[in-house]
Fold this protein.
Amino acid sequence: MKNFRLSHLALAIVPLSLISSLANADCNTAAPTVNIIPGIVQSIEPSAGFTTNYYWYAVSVTNNNSASCGPTTFNVQTNSGNAGSFLIPTISSTVTLNPGQTTRVKLNIRASTSGGTIGATYIVPVYVSSASSPNLIGASAAFLKVVNDCASNVPYMEITPASQTGVAGTTYTNYSSTIRNNDPAKNQAGAWCPSSFYNFVRTDSFGGGLQTIGEQVSPQVSGGDPFKVVVPAGTASGSYPVSIKGTDSTNPARIGQSLAELIIQ
């Protein structure tokens, strides 16, 4: 009987407001953060004969809602306003993210048959929102300049899988890297643009050291290779980054990068 009375007394002295707040934590929503990678102007050729050439970007989306909100599905869309004159964005996607989580979506842009003005820069905005909070919109934009000769662009890079869950003491061999040479394929005279040699540097958080390779990639062509990540026994639980960087040896200022996460439970 004494235990029964003590338990009721313990409940009695806990404020009801605290019990209510613990049971129904507030969900604070916010506009997602959106970034276009790379964030610099890329060069694109206007010839209608090269409309199969695509220029790859990465759209980074971060869920900024509070932790109590749970997962949210975001709509990722483009609206260039230039589709009839030059640029044709090809993206309409959805991503589901937990609060604080970031992911990437590929954005492909190509020339239309209408061509463009030499020297002009075109803008392709990207908008991200959710059905639950349609007025909270994140936005960014890709910029492309029309040229009539070969140009050196930032390559597109991607790590697959972008996120996975694992355990300590395991070697993960399912990783692969992709690099896309975003340089124009030909100049206006019809001559092929030169290929690029990329130096890759891969790093992880598990003491494996740098993994460095090199690869020759032609314009508008993708390359890459598989790699592994070794997680030592005893690694603490948490989220660990896996990164890759590719540098154009002929133009070291053109650096492509990608980041993945390995969640150790």
Observations:
- The CA atoms of residues 10 and 153 lie 67 Å apart.
